[in-house]
Amino acid sequence: MIAAIRGTQDILPGTIERWQFVEATACRVFEQYGYAEIRTPIIEREELFAKGTGETTDIVQKEMYAFTDKDGERIALRPEATPSLVRAFVEHSLEQAMAVPKIYTLGPMFRRERPQKGRYRQFHQLDVEVFGVKDPSVDGEVIDLAWTLIRELGITGVELAVNSVGCPVCRPSFAAALVAALGEDVQTLCGDCQRRAVANPLRIFDCKVPADQRVIDALPHTIDYLCDECRTHFEAVRRYLDVFGIPYTLSHRLVRGLDYYTRTTFEVLAGQIGAQNAVLGGGRYDGLVKQLGGPDRVGIGFAAGVERLVLALPDTLALPEKRPAVFIAAIGEPAREAALTLLRDLRRAGVNAQVEYEGRSLKSQMKRADRLKAPLVFILGEDELARGEVSVRRMATSSQESVPLSGAVEFVKTSQ
Ligand code: HAM
Protein backbone atom coordinates (compact mmCIF):
# COMPACT_ATOMS: atom_id res chain seq x y z
CA MET A 1 0.00 0.00 0.00
CA ILE A 2 1.28 3.45 -0.85
CA ALA A 3 0.29 5.73 2.03
CA ALA A 4 -0.33 9.49 1.99
CA ILE A 5 2.73 11.68 2.54
CA ARG A 6 3.56 12.68 6.14
CA GLY A 7 1.90 15.95 7.05
CA THR A 8 -0.85 15.60 4.43
CA GLN A 9 -4.31 14.20 5.00
CA ASP A 10 -7.37 12.94 3.18
CA ILE A 11 -10.55 14.73 4.17
CA LEU A 12 -13.25 12.08 4.15
CA PRO A 13 -17.06 12.06 4.26
CA GLY A 14 -18.02 12.59 7.88
CA THR A 15 -15.39 15.36 8.19
CA ILE A 16 -15.70 17.07 4.83
CA GLU A 17 -19.13 18.43 5.85
CA ARG A 18 -17.39 20.56 8.47
CA TRP A 19 -14.94 21.82 5.82
CA GLN A 20 -17.80 22.63 3.47
CA PHE A 21 -19.54 24.53 6.27
CA VAL A 22 -16.37 26.54 7.01
CA GLU A 23 -15.71 27.33 3.37
CA ALA A 24 -19.32 28.22 2.52
CA THR A 25 -19.61 30.44 5.62
CA ALA A 26 -16.32 32.19 4.80
CA CYS A 27 -17.29 32.84 1.16
CA ARG A 28 -20.68 34.20 2.26
CA VAL A 29 -19.15 36.55 4.85
CA PHE A 30 -16.31 37.70 2.55
CA GLU A 31 -18.76 38.46 -0.27
CA GLN A 32 -21.01 40.32 2.19
CA TYR A 33 -18.05 42.57 3.05
CA GLY A 34 -17.49 43.26 -0.65
CA TYR A 35 -14.60 40.89 -1.41
CA ALA A 36 -14.40 39.12 -4.78
CA GLU A 37 -12.92 35.67 -5.18
CA ILE A 38 -9.83 35.03 -7.25
CA ARG A 39 -7.79 31.85 -7.72
CA THR A 40 -4.10 31.77 -8.42
CA PRO A 41 -1.75 28.88 -9.25
CA ILE A 42 -0.29 26.64 -6.56
CA ILE A 43 3.12 26.87 -8.23
CA GLU A 44 4.92 30.19 -8.59
CA ARG A 45 8.46 31.35 -9.20
CA GLU A 46 10.50 30.76 -6.04
CA GLU A 47 11.64 34.37 -6.23
CA LEU A 48 8.10 35.61 -5.49
CA PHE A 49 8.24 34.18 -1.98
CA ALA A 50 11.94 34.84 -1.43
CA LYS A 51 11.22 38.54 -2.09
CA GLY A 52 7.67 38.60 -0.73
CA THR A 53 7.51 36.34 2.32
CA GLY A 54 11.15 37.26 3.01
CA GLU A 55 14.63 35.72 2.76
CA THR A 56 15.15 35.76 6.52
CA THR A 57 11.88 34.01 7.43
CA ASP A 58 11.72 30.39 8.58
CA ILE A 59 9.19 29.77 5.81
CA VAL A 60 11.65 30.65 3.04
CA GLN A 61 14.81 29.43 4.77
CA LYS A 62 13.56 26.09 6.04
CA GLU A 63 10.03 25.22 5.03
CA MET A 64 9.47 25.98 1.38
CA TYR A 65 9.00 23.16 -1.13
CA ALA A 66 11.04 24.35 -4.08
CA PHE A 67 12.56 22.55 -7.05
CA THR A 68 14.31 23.17 -10.34
CA ASP A 69 11.97 22.57 -13.27
CA LYS A 70 13.13 20.72 -16.39
CA ASP A 71 13.91 24.03 -18.10
CA GLY A 72 16.08 25.16 -15.19
CA GLU A 73 13.52 27.51 -13.64
CA ARG A 74 13.21 27.56 -9.84
CA ILE A 75 9.62 26.80 -8.84
CA ALA A 76 8.00 26.80 -5.39
CA LEU A 77 4.76 25.37 -4.03
CA ARG A 78 3.14 28.43 -2.46
CA PRO A 79 3.67 28.54 1.32
CA GLU A 80 1.09 31.33 1.66
CA ALA A 81 -1.26 33.25 -0.60
CA THR A 82 -0.36 36.91 -0.02
CA PRO A 83 2.58 37.24 -2.48
CA SER A 84 0.53 35.43 -5.16
CA LEU A 85 -2.42 37.78 -4.64
CA VAL A 86 -0.11 40.79 -4.79
CA ARG A 87 1.38 39.41 -8.01
CA ALA A 88 -2.10 38.93 -9.51
CA PHE A 89 -3.15 42.43 -8.36
CA VAL A 90 -0.18 43.92 -10.21
CA GLU A 91 -0.14 41.58 -13.22
CA HIS A 92 -3.83 42.14 -14.03
CA SER A 93 -4.00 45.81 -12.95
CA LEU A 94 -6.88 44.92 -10.62
CA GLU A 95 -6.83 48.48 -9.39
CA GLN A 96 -8.33 49.53 -12.72
CA ALA A 97 -10.47 46.46 -13.16
CA MET A 98 -12.18 46.58 -9.77
CA ALA A 99 -14.01 49.48 -8.08
CA VAL A 100 -12.32 48.56 -4.81
CA PRO A 101 -9.53 45.97 -4.94
CA LYS A 102 -10.79 43.66 -2.17
CA ILE A 103 -10.05 40.05 -3.00
CA TYR A 104 -10.17 36.64 -1.34
CA THR A 105 -8.99 33.17 -2.18
CA LEU A 106 -9.02 29.71 -0.67
CA GLY A 107 -6.88 26.68 -1.30
CA PRO A 108 -3.92 24.53 -0.29
CA MET A 109 -0.58 25.93 0.92
CA PHE A 110 2.62 24.00 1.57
CA ARG A 111 5.21 24.31 4.33
CA ARG A 112 7.68 21.64 5.35
CA GLU A 113 7.05 22.01 9.08
CA ARG A 114 7.18 19.26 11.70
CA PRO A 115 3.70 17.76 11.55
CA GLN A 116 1.59 17.72 14.70
CA LYS A 117 -2.02 18.35 15.67
CA GLY A 118 -3.17 21.43 13.74
CA ARG A 119 0.09 21.66 11.78
CA TYR A 120 0.41 20.06 8.38
CA ARG A 121 2.71 20.21 5.38
CA GLN A 122 -0.24 20.68 3.07
CA PHE A 123 -2.82 22.87 4.78
CA HIS A 124 -5.56 25.17 3.55
CA GLN A 125 -6.06 28.88 3.94
CA LEU A 126 -8.93 31.30 3.51
CA ASP A 127 -7.20 34.56 2.64
CA VAL A 128 -8.49 38.12 2.18
CA GLU A 129 -6.55 41.19 1.01
CA VAL A 130 -7.44 44.87 0.41
CA PHE A 131 -5.19 47.13 -1.61
CA GLY A 132 -4.70 50.88 -1.75
CA VAL A 133 -6.35 52.07 1.49
CA LYS A 134 -4.08 53.82 4.00
CA ASP A 135 -6.82 54.86 6.40
CA PRO A 136 -6.86 52.94 9.72
CA SER A 137 -10.61 52.34 9.29
CA VAL A 138 -9.71 49.59 6.82
CA ASP A 139 -7.55 47.90 9.47
CA GLY A 140 -10.65 48.05 11.65
CA GLU A 141 -12.80 46.58 8.88
CA VAL A 142 -10.41 43.72 8.16
CA ILE A 143 -10.17 42.79 11.85
CA ASP A 144 -13.95 43.08 12.14
CA LEU A 145 -14.25 40.74 9.15
CA ALA A 146 -11.99 38.21 10.88
CA TRP A 147 -14.03 38.51 14.06
CA THR A 148 -17.33 38.13 12.17
CA LEU A 149 -16.02 35.00 10.44
CA ILE A 150 -15.17 33.43 13.80
CA ARG A 151 -18.57 34.40 15.20
CA GLU A 152 -20.50 33.11 12.17
CA LEU A 153 -18.67 29.79 12.51
CA GLY A 154 -19.87 29.59 16.11
CA ILE A 155 -16.30 29.37 17.43
CA THR A 156 -16.03 30.55 21.03
CA GLY A 157 -13.23 30.88 23.60
CA VAL A 158 -10.99 32.82 21.23
CA GLU A 159 -8.69 35.73 21.87
CA LEU A 160 -7.77 38.51 19.46
CA ALA A 161 -4.19 39.73 19.82
CA VAL A 162 -3.04 42.93 18.12
CA ASN A 163 0.22 44.83 17.84
CA SER A 164 1.97 47.38 15.66
CA VAL A 165 5.38 46.56 14.20
CA GLY A 166 6.07 50.06 12.88
CA CYS A 167 7.38 51.00 9.47
CA PRO A 168 10.73 51.46 7.70
CA VAL A 169 11.04 54.85 9.44
CA CYS A 170 10.82 53.56 13.02
CA ARG A 171 11.86 49.93 12.54
CA PRO A 172 15.65 50.64 12.44
CA SER A 173 15.59 52.31 15.86
CA PHE A 174 13.60 49.39 17.26
CA ALA A 175 16.02 46.87 15.71
CA ALA A 176 18.91 48.79 17.23
CA ALA A 177 17.15 48.81 20.61
CA LEU A 178 16.68 45.04 20.36
CA VAL A 179 20.34 44.44 19.63
CA ALA A 180 21.38 46.81 22.44
CA ALA A 181 19.00 45.13 24.90
CA LEU A 182 20.29 41.70 23.95
CA GLY A 183 23.89 42.74 24.52
CA GLU A 184 26.02 39.80 25.64
CA ASP A 185 22.90 37.63 26.07
CA VAL A 186 22.82 37.06 22.33
CA GLN A 187 25.54 34.44 22.78
CA THR A 188 23.27 32.42 25.06
CA LEU A 189 20.55 32.20 22.39
CA CYS A 190 20.16 29.46 19.77
CA GLY A 191 22.13 29.56 16.51
CA ASP A 192 19.07 30.76 14.58
CA CYS A 193 18.63 33.72 16.94
CA GLN A 194 22.30 34.62 16.66
CA ARG A 195 21.91 34.77 12.88
CA ARG A 196 18.61 36.70 13.24
CA ALA A 197 20.30 39.27 15.49
CA VAL A 198 22.55 40.15 12.56
CA ALA A 199 20.20 39.70 9.56
CA ASN A 200 16.81 40.84 10.94
CA PRO A 201 16.60 41.23 14.74
CA LEU A 202 12.76 41.38 14.70
CA ARG A 203 12.74 37.72 13.64
CA ILE A 204 14.08 36.78 17.11
CA PHE A 205 10.46 36.94 18.28
CA ASP A 206 9.71 33.91 16.05
CA CYS A 207 12.01 31.73 18.20
CA LYS A 208 10.28 28.71 19.75
CA VAL A 209 13.33 27.33 21.65
CA PRO A 210 12.20 27.12 25.31
CA ALA A 211 15.61 28.07 26.73
CA ASP A 212 15.61 31.35 24.78
CA GLN A 213 12.23 32.58 25.96
CA ARG A 214 13.34 34.23 29.20
CA VAL A 215 15.70 36.56 27.35
CA ILE A 216 13.19 37.21 24.54
CA ASP A 217 10.34 38.02 26.92
CA ALA A 218 12.45 40.79 28.47
CA LEU A 219 13.18 42.52 25.13
CA PRO A 220 11.78 45.99 24.32
CA HIS A 221 8.28 46.36 22.85
CA THR A 222 7.70 47.57 19.28
CA ILE A 223 4.97 50.02 20.31
CA ASP A 224 7.41 51.99 22.48
CA TYR A 225 9.49 52.76 19.36
CA LEU A 226 6.77 53.76 16.87
CA CYS A 227 7.20 56.98 14.90
CA ASP A 228 4.44 59.58 15.28
CA GLU A 229 2.56 58.44 12.17
CA CYS A 230 2.61 54.79 13.19
CA ARG A 231 1.55 55.65 16.74
CA THR A 232 -1.39 57.76 15.51
CA HIS A 233 -2.39 55.01 13.09
CA PHE A 234 -2.31 52.34 15.79
CA GLU A 235 -4.29 54.50 18.21
CA ALA A 236 -6.96 54.93 15.52
CA VAL A 237 -7.07 51.18 14.84
CA ARG A 238 -7.56 50.51 18.55
CA ARG A 239 -10.30 53.12 18.67
CA TYR A 240 -12.13 51.39 15.80
CA LEU A 241 -11.90 48.09 17.64
CA ASP A 242 -13.46 49.74 20.69
CA VAL A 243 -16.17 51.35 18.58
CA PHE A 244 -16.94 47.98 16.93
CA GLY A 245 -17.03 46.35 20.36
CA ILE A 246 -14.30 43.86 19.50
CA PRO A 247 -12.34 42.77 22.58
CA TYR A 248 -8.58 42.39 22.08
CA THR A 249 -5.32 42.12 23.95
CA LEU A 250 -2.14 43.96 23.11
CA SER A 251 0.54 41.38 22.34
CA HIS A 252 4.09 42.75 22.29
CA ARG A 253 5.60 39.61 20.79
CA LEU A 254 3.23 39.57 17.86
CA VAL A 255 5.64 40.52 15.05
CA ARG A 256 4.41 37.60 12.87
CA GLY A 257 6.71 35.24 11.03
CA LEU A 258 6.69 37.03 7.67
CA ASP A 259 8.86 39.96 6.61
CA TYR A 260 6.36 42.22 4.87
CA TYR A 261 4.34 43.51 7.81
CA THR A 262 4.20 47.20 8.65
CA ARG A 263 2.10 48.78 11.40
CA THR A 264 -0.93 46.65 12.37
CA THR A 265 -0.51 42.92 13.03
CA PHE A 266 -3.13 40.62 14.56
CA GLU A 267 -3.93 37.01 15.32
CA VAL A 268 -6.92 35.08 16.60
CA LEU A 269 -5.98 32.33 19.05
CA ALA A 270 -8.23 29.43 20.02
CA GLY A 271 -6.91 27.94 23.24
CA GLN A 272 -8.93 24.73 23.07
CA ILE A 273 -7.33 23.32 19.90
CA GLY A 274 -3.86 22.63 21.32
CA ALA A 275 -0.37 24.04 20.88
CA GLN A 276 -0.98 25.21 17.30
CA ASN A 277 -3.64 27.63 18.41
CA ALA A 278 -3.44 30.47 15.86
CA VAL A 279 -6.56 30.02 13.76
CA LEU A 280 -5.98 33.21 11.83
CA GLY A 281 -3.30 35.85 11.36
CA GLY A 282 -2.69 38.94 9.32
CA GLY A 283 -1.68 42.55 9.13
CA ARG A 284 -0.76 45.54 7.03
CA TYR A 285 2.00 45.39 4.42
CA ASP A 286 2.50 48.87 3.04
CA GLY A 287 5.71 48.21 1.09
CA LEU A 288 5.06 44.78 -0.41
CA VAL A 289 3.28 45.71 -3.65
CA LYS A 290 6.10 48.07 -4.63
CA GLN A 291 8.74 45.62 -3.50
CA LEU A 292 7.28 43.00 -5.85
CA GLY A 293 7.51 45.39 -8.80
CA GLY A 294 4.06 47.00 -8.61
CA PRO A 295 2.88 50.56 -7.97
CA ASP A 296 3.37 52.11 -4.54
CA ARG A 297 0.18 50.75 -2.97
CA VAL A 298 -0.48 49.73 0.60
CA GLY A 299 -2.24 46.51 1.55
CA ILE A 300 -3.74 44.65 4.47
CA GLY A 301 -5.29 41.22 4.93
CA PHE A 302 -5.35 37.98 6.86
CA ALA A 303 -5.39 34.25 6.35
CA ALA A 304 -7.22 31.64 8.39
CA GLY A 305 -6.18 27.98 8.53
CA VAL A 306 -9.12 25.79 7.54
CA GLU A 307 -7.81 22.74 9.47
CA ARG A 308 -7.62 24.82 12.65
CA LEU A 309 -11.03 26.43 12.14
CA VAL A 310 -12.52 22.95 11.68
CA LEU A 311 -10.82 21.81 14.91
CA ALA A 312 -12.20 24.84 16.74
CA LEU A 313 -15.80 24.39 15.59
CA PRO A 314 -18.18 23.70 18.46
CA ASP A 315 -18.86 19.99 19.11
CA THR A 316 -22.53 20.83 19.18
CA LEU A 317 -22.50 22.03 15.57
CA ALA A 318 -25.34 20.16 13.88
CA LEU A 319 -24.91 19.93 10.14
CA PRO A 320 -27.73 18.55 8.02
CA GLU A 321 -27.15 14.86 7.38
CA LYS A 322 -26.64 13.97 3.74
CA ARG A 323 -29.01 11.19 2.74
CA PRO A 324 -31.23 10.31 -0.19
CA ALA A 325 -34.87 11.37 -0.10
CA VAL A 326 -35.88 8.07 -1.62
CA PHE A 327 -34.42 4.67 -2.49
CA ILE A 328 -35.89 2.60 -5.31
CA ALA A 329 -35.94 -1.17 -4.93
CA ALA A 330 -36.86 -3.16 -8.03
CA ILE A 331 -37.62 -6.85 -8.46
CA GLY A 332 -37.29 -8.38 -11.92
CA GLU A 333 -35.95 -6.96 -15.16
CA PRO A 334 -39.06 -5.07 -16.45
CA ALA A 335 -39.47 -3.41 -13.04
CA ARG A 336 -35.78 -2.54 -13.07
CA GLU A 337 -36.19 -0.62 -16.31
CA ALA A 338 -39.16 1.26 -14.88
CA ALA A 339 -37.14 1.91 -11.71
CA LEU A 340 -34.26 3.41 -13.68
CA THR A 341 -36.67 5.64 -15.62
CA LEU A 342 -38.24 6.79 -12.36
CA LEU A 343 -34.74 7.38 -10.93
CA ARG A 344 -33.92 9.59 -13.89
CA ASP A 345 -37.18 11.55 -13.53
CA LEU A 346 -36.63 12.06 -9.80
CA ARG A 347 -33.10 13.33 -10.36
CA ARG A 348 -34.23 15.67 -13.13
CA ALA A 349 -36.74 17.05 -10.64
CA GLY A 350 -33.87 17.75 -8.23
CA VAL A 351 -34.53 14.86 -5.83
CA ASN A 352 -31.67 12.87 -4.28
CA ALA A 353 -32.74 9.35 -5.27
CA GLN A 354 -30.66 6.17 -5.15
CA VAL A 355 -31.03 2.70 -6.55
CA GLU A 356 -29.42 -0.72 -6.21
CA TYR A 357 -27.12 -1.25 -9.18
CA GLU A 358 -26.61 -5.00 -8.94
CA GLY A 359 -30.05 -6.60 -9.31
CA ARG A 360 -30.10 -8.26 -5.87
CA SER A 361 -32.81 -9.66 -3.59
CA LEU A 362 -35.43 -7.33 -2.12
CA LYS A 363 -34.01 -8.04 1.33
CA SER A 364 -30.53 -6.85 0.41
CA GLN A 365 -31.98 -3.83 -1.39
CA MET A 366 -33.93 -2.88 1.76
CA LYS A 367 -30.73 -3.27 3.78
CA ARG A 368 -28.96 -0.88 1.44
CA ALA A 369 -31.81 1.64 1.76
CA ASP A 370 -31.47 1.37 5.52
CA ARG A 371 -27.70 1.98 5.42
CA LEU A 372 -28.24 5.02 3.22
CA LYS A 373 -30.84 6.24 5.77
CA ALA A 374 -33.41 6.88 3.03
CA PRO A 375 -36.70 7.81 4.75
CA LEU A 376 -38.75 6.48 1.79
CA VAL A 377 -38.37 3.35 -0.32
CA PHE A 378 -40.21 2.83 -3.58
CA ILE A 379 -40.76 -0.83 -4.28
CA LEU A 380 -41.37 -1.81 -7.87
CA GLY A 381 -42.20 -5.42 -8.81
CA GLU A 382 -44.24 -7.12 -11.50
CA ASP A 383 -47.56 -6.47 -9.66
CA GLU A 384 -46.89 -2.80 -9.13
CA LEU A 385 -45.84 -2.43 -12.75
CA ALA A 386 -49.04 -4.13 -13.96
CA ARG A 387 -51.13 -1.71 -11.85
CA GLY A 388 -49.06 1.31 -12.93
CA GLU A 389 -48.27 1.94 -9.28
CA VAL A 390 -45.37 1.95 -6.91
CA SER A 391 -45.41 0.74 -3.30
CA VAL A 392 -44.00 3.23 -0.83
CA ARG A 393 -42.47 2.13 2.46
CA ARG A 394 -41.94 4.77 5.13
CA MET A 395 -38.84 3.50 6.89
CA ALA A 396 -39.49 5.25 10.21
CA THR A 397 -42.86 3.54 10.74
CA SER A 398 -42.53 0.55 8.35
CA SER A 399 -45.94 1.54 6.99
CA GLN A 400 -46.69 0.90 3.34
CA GLU A 401 -49.01 2.49 0.79
CA SER A 402 -49.42 2.68 -3.00
CA VAL A 403 -49.12 5.70 -5.27
CA PRO A 404 -49.56 5.93 -9.05
CA LEU A 405 -46.22 5.67 -10.87
CA SER A 406 -47.08 8.88 -12.73
CA GLY A 407 -47.39 10.76 -9.42
CA ALA A 408 -44.29 9.28 -7.77
CA VAL A 409 -42.04 12.30 -8.31
CA GLU A 410 -44.65 14.68 -6.91
CA PHE A 411 -45.19 12.34 -3.95
CA VAL A 412 -41.49 12.53 -2.94
CA LYS A 413 -41.36 16.27 -3.44
CA THR A 414 -44.36 16.86 -1.19
CA SER A 415 -43.16 14.48 1.52
CA GLN A 416 -39.67 16.08 1.69
P1 HAM B 1 0.40 32.83 8.64
O1 HAM B 1 0.25 33.28 10.06
O2 HAM B 1 1.69 32.27 8.24
O3 HAM B 1 0.01 34.08 7.76
O4 HAM B 1 -0.74 31.77 8.34
C1 HAM B 1 -2.10 32.07 8.55
C2 HAM B 1 -2.81 30.89 9.17
O5 HAM B 1 -2.61 29.71 8.40
C3 HAM B 1 -2.32 30.51 10.57
O6 HAM B 1 -2.90 31.33 11.55
C4 HAM B 1 -2.78 29.08 10.67
O7 HAM B 1 -4.14 29.03 11.04
C5 HAM B 1 -2.63 28.57 9.25
N1 HAM B 1 -1.38 27.80 9.10
C6 HAM B 1 -0.14 28.26 8.86
N2 HAM B 1 0.74 27.23 8.78
C7 HAM B 1 0.04 26.10 8.95
C8 HAM B 1 0.36 24.70 8.98
N3 HAM B 1 1.60 24.27 8.76
N4 HAM B 1 -0.64 23.82 9.21
C9 HAM B 1 -1.91 24.23 9.41
N5 HAM B 1 -2.28 25.53 9.39
C10 HAM B 1 -1.32 26.46 9.17
C11 HAM B 1 0.00 34.07 6.39
O8 HAM B 1 0.11 33.07 5.72
C12 HAM B 1 -0.23 35.44 5.78
N6 HAM B 1 -0.20 35.28 4.31
C13 HAM B 1 -1.53 36.03 6.26
C14 HAM B 1 -1.82 37.36 5.67
C15 HAM B 1 -2.66 37.65 4.64
N7 HAM B 1 -1.25 38.51 6.02
C16 HAM B 1 -1.70 39.50 5.27
N8 HAM B 1 -2.55 38.97 4.41
What would you say this structure looks like, in words?
With 416 residues, the chain is an alpha+beta fold. It has two domains: 16-170 and 226-312, BirA Bifunctional Protein, domain 2; 326-415, 3-Layer(aba) Sandwich (Rossmann fold). It is built from 16 helices and 16 strands. It has helices at 16-32, 46-52, 58-63, 82-91, 94-97, 136-152, 171-182, 191-199, 213-217, 228-243, 288-291, 306-312, 333-348, 362-371, 382-387, 408-415; strands at residues 36-37, 43-45, 66-68, 74-77, 102-110, 122-131, 158-164, 249-250, 264-270, 278-284, 299-305, 326-330, 353-355, 376-380, 389-394, 399-404. Helix 1 (16-32) runs antiparallel to helix 6 (136-152), helix 1 packs across helix 12 (306-312) and helix 6 runs parallel beside helix 10. The protein is elongated, with a radius of gyration of 28 Å. It binds histidyl-adenosine monophosphate. Histidyl-adenosine monophosphate is lined by residues 80-82, 111, 113, 119-120, 123, 125, 127, 129, 257-258, 278-283, 301-305, 307-308.
Structural class: alpha+beta
Largest sheet: 8 strands, mixed
Q: How many domain regions?
A: 2
Strand content is 15-25%
Bound molecule types: histidyl-adenosine monophosphate
Q: Helical amount among residues, as a percent range?
A: 25-40%
Low-confidence stretches: none
Helices and strands, with pairings:
Elements: H1 16-32, E1 36-37, E2 43-45, H2 46-52, H3 58-63, E3 66-68, E4 74-77, H4 82-91, H5 94-97, E5 102-110, E6 122-131, H6 136-152, E7 158-164, H7 171-182, H8 191-199, H9 213-217, H10 228-243, E8 249-250, E9 264-270, E10 278-284, H11 288-291, E11 299-305, H12 306-312, E12 326-330, H13 333-348, E13 353-355, H14 362-371, E14 376-380, H15 382-387, E15 389-394, E16 399-404, H16 408-415
Parallel strand pairs: 1-5, 7-8, 12-13, 12-14
Antiparallel strand pairs: 2-4, 3-4, 5-6, 6-11, 7-9, 9-10, 10-11, 14-15, 15-16
Helix pairs in contact: 1-6, 1-12, 6-10
Histidyl-adenosine monophosphate binds near residues 123 and 280.
